[in-house]
Amino acid sequence: MFKSFNDVPIKSIVHLFMVRGSLYLFPFITLPIITRSLGVTQFGILSLFLAGQQYLIMLIEYGFTLTGARDISRATEKKEETQILGEILVCRSFIFLASCVFIACSYYFLPDYGYAGCYLILLIAILSSVFNQTHFFIGKERTGFIVISTAITRIISILIVVLFVRTKSDIYIAMMAYSLNVALPNILSSVYLRIVLRYKFISPMSRTHVFERFKSGFDIFISNVFTNIYSTLTLIYLGSARGPTETGYFSSADKLKSAAQGFLSPVAQAFFPRVSKKSGAEFYKLWLKSTFIIVSIAICIVVGLLGFSEIIYDIFLGKQYISGLPIYYILSISIISISFGITYAQNLYLTQGKTRLLRMIYFVVSIIHLIHMPLLVHYYGAIGAALSVLITESFASLLMFIFRKKCYTWSHS
At what angle do helices 325-344 and 244-261 cross, to 10 degrees? Predict the structure, then answer.
């Protein structure tokens, strides 16, 4: 089964790895400049705006990046692809209008901040997410454009920070540089689709089709919400129960784990459209191949993280964080469970239309996490928080494995 790699999307994997690398390059270069120029207070305010931007963009994305890519990969005519693009645009527009109400309320009820310019930049960034066409390029396996648009954006953003962020009053420029990383690729993708590829975004569609499009992304969106809730609440509870020091150890280790874990996403995204096109035994063979590759990469990542742990801590965090190594070891091991979760959730449950079952799995593990996490944190502090994450991720993967046969009813012996 693993003799031939002809059906492995190597080109897409390389392109998406380049995009992932550019995502890490921007903060690596700009963060020291921004933190020193803005100071602690202004940087804290900037972080609040960027956190809000991240969650609102997640709301507008909704789940269409995956479901849209799946449907685009299965479309046989340009007319059908245009219909998908139009439905997603309309759905995201409705979500954007709801987001505008939230932003307006935030500005009204938080007048002490008074950063109207940051609110305006925030609004423009989430508006651009309405026109994000990543689902099209992943579905059509034309990921080269994503690399080009991302590279152009990162260069411009880095130059803005290096040349113009000097003092505390430059918080608007810093906000604009971060938001440009979101907005410009979205704008360029829509322009490319409309002018170069001649796709129309608005086509005749019924309310039923729009509702079905909303429905198709709902389970993925709710699954993402459950995942964010239990990961965020772990950090919040740890901070309230054990104080800032242990929270710092956990948060720093979690950031290193998340950065390493991010290298699994390009491989999963590259396989996703190809797996979506297959059916029957062909689907099963390609899915197994993708699982083998993703899990193998995860094991290599974990071995590297554990083997070079002290060097990694010394380079990225400093010796004052070295007491957090046990937390780092536990979180690093969880990457293997997460790799199984990615390949089951994205390339099996989603492609086979079992998103409701996937949503229920994430709901169950989130509830169980909220039961055992406080106990582990109470007795073991930050180490307990890390253990709770490992238990939850492993349990989620176990449930996906147990219910996997509901995703296929044909013989694959």
Answer: 40
Query: Exposed, middle or buried, 232 (CB in 10 Å: 0-12/13-18/19+)?
Result: exposed
Number of other residues whose CB lies within 10 A of the CB of residue 10: 10
The residues spanned by each domain of the chain are 1-205, 217-413
Query: What pLDDT digit, counting tens, does each position of 311-322 carry?
Result: 988 877 777 778
Task: Give the residue ranges of DSSP H helices in 317-354.
Answer: 325-344
Using CA atoms, how far apart are residues 12 and 90, in angstroms rounded to an integer?
A: 28
Check if the beta carbon of residue 362 is closer than 8 Å to that of residue 325.
no
Lowest mean pLDDT among 201-210, 257-266, 361-370: 201-210
Q: Helix crossing, 64-74 with 78-109: angle to 10°?
A: 170
Query: Distance between CA 334 and CA 391 in Å, rounded?
Result: 8
Burial string for 147-157 (b: 16+ CB within 10 Å, else e) reads bbbbbebbeeb
Mean pLDDT of all residues in 351-363: 88
**């193998």: which residue's tokens?**
296
